[in-house]
Amino acid sequence: MEGELEMTVMWTLVFFSLFAGLGAGLFVAVVVTEWRNRAEAVRFPAAATALAALIVGGISSVLHLGHPERIFNALNHPTSGIFLEFVFMGLAGLGIVVYMVMLARGSSDSSRRAEATVTAVPAVVLSFQVGHTYVMASRPAWDTIILPLLYMATAAVMGCCALSLFAAQKKEVGTTRRAAWATLISLAVELVLIIAYVAHLSSAPFADASRSADRVLSGNLAALFWIGLVLCGLLVPVVLSWLLRSQKAGWLSPFTSAAIALAAVLGGGIAFRALMFTLGSGVKQYFGGL
Amino acid sequence: MHNCLVIDLDRCSGCHSCEVHCKMQNKIDLGVYWNKVLIVGPTGTFPDIEQYALPMQCQQCADAPCVKVCPTGASYRDKKTNIVLINKAVCFGCRYCMMACPYGVRWYNEAEKVVEKCTLCPQLTSAGEKPACVHNCCTGARSYGDLDDPNSDVSQVIAAAGAENVHSLPDEGNHPSTHYILRQETATWRES
């Protein structure tokens, strides 16, 4: 009786949240280097990349709109998820610009550190908010706090991984190792959240085959889950980060290892987001899918 | 004031005239729906088989999630009639309201790049007429009026039906206002 339940993947939103997560995660990783007084040479290019990622994410979200010229109408409703994304992305972007100016002008360590720390707040909130916007009772597969936490975890993974790439490029051995450690810890958290999310799919109300754990684990989404998310998004970066941490990858330079790990993590991030959209069927879809 | 529809499924023959008149009145493109008649069933085993028609449109939720998530305020509740409407001149086509709707009864207009849905025909009701689907229902299955007014058509139809025969779509905290009347003698309500 109902229309097709399947929800289509909204690729512009996939790339919006991916790049927003990368930008937020990378900048927070830069802030950690500030606090630990390490890897000075990495900070400017990493902050610039974080800013570029936020801009690419922002452009991607604008491309999703039917009427991009009405973008500032998003300021009409200050409690909506999109408004909050808009604000936190703007604050984080502005804060990164100020941080880069301070770096370029050689401001004092304490003032720069304070500015970076303040900017880290909207960046962290943004990485959570891009997932929280999707938490809605109408989409049982999305209606869980695990979802924004997973978005946050993927942002942390991407940020740590990207920092290890910059550190490897600048031959900052200590920072490369520490960033690889941080990547491993973030990946462990992501793994726990993925397991929790699959468990949520099994217990969510209004059970339906379109958003079942069976569909993810052994159905037509199994390839996306096992190859895209588990292999590409978890196992490959785990192995490469482990090698980076121990500096044992003689056959791969640290830079190449970090680059492959980051590419794999980005691929895993895309797989996770595509999976989320595909599972996002409504309680009822009387007029068909979205 | 809380205007909404009450649809008597015991009377509905599934003729689709509400759908057709909705399209004509609101100039809706081919393949696009603000109102659609669905068929539930057949269910059961011969000879005990049931089937009923279920006209579907915006449920005018009392706590509408589409209004809550809309970043532009394009989805809004009319202060006078309490009807959930869309200001298409403000909508920027993000489609979050479509995601938030528990029933999937909003439509993205590809030509205008905005979201649309049933409006309960304010162009008619503001002049004292009934929505096109109600006015043109061949079997008199559809009623329109103020749920808060005990003398309105909808309140009287609900009262006459008996509480056990009055149904609504699954409630996820959004409190759908549209009511459906279906007696067990006709068929078993299956939208829970």
Short key terms for the protein model shown above:
heterodimer; A: 290 residues; mainly alpha; Formate dehydrogenase/DMSO reductase fold; 72% helix; 0% strand; globular; B: 192 residues; alpha+beta; Alpha-Beta Plaits; 19% helix
Topology of this structure?
The complex is a heterodimer of chains A (about 290) and B (about 190).
Chain A: H1 11-35, H2 40-64, H3 81-104, H4 109-132, H5 146-169, H6 173-203, H7 213-217, H8 222-246, H9 254-278
Helix pairs in contact in A: 1-2, 1-4, 1-5, 1-9, 2-3, 2-5, 3-4, 4-5, 5-6, 5-9, 6-8, 8-9
Chain B: E1 3-8, H1 17-26, E2 35-45, E3 48-57, H2 65-69, E4 75-77, E5 84-86, H3 96-100, E6 107-109, E7 114-116, H4 122-125, H5 132-135, E8 142-146, H6 153-161, E9 166-167, E10 179-181
Parallel strand pairs in B: 1-10
Antiparallel strand pairs in B: 1-8, 2-3, 4-5, 6-7, 9-10
Give an account of the 3D structure.
The complex is a heterodimer of chains A (290) and B (192). In chain A, 72% of the residues lie in helices and 0% in strands. Chain A is an all-alpha fold. Chain A has a single domain, classed as Formate dehydrogenase/DMSO reductase domain (Formate dehydrogenase/DMSO reductase fold), CATH 1.20.1630. The longest helix of chain A is centred in the middle third of the chain and has 31 residues, at 173-203. The longest helix of chain B is centred in the N-terminal third of the chain and has 10 residues, at 17-26. The two termini of chain B are 27 Å apart. The chains are: A mainly alpha (290), B alpha+beta (192). The A-B interface holds A 1-3, 10, 64-68, 70-71, 73-74, 76-77, 79-83, 86, 133-134, 136-139, 206, 280, 282-290 and B 33, 36, 38-41, 54, 56, 65, 68-74, 90-96, 98-108, 112-114, 169-170, 172-174, 191.
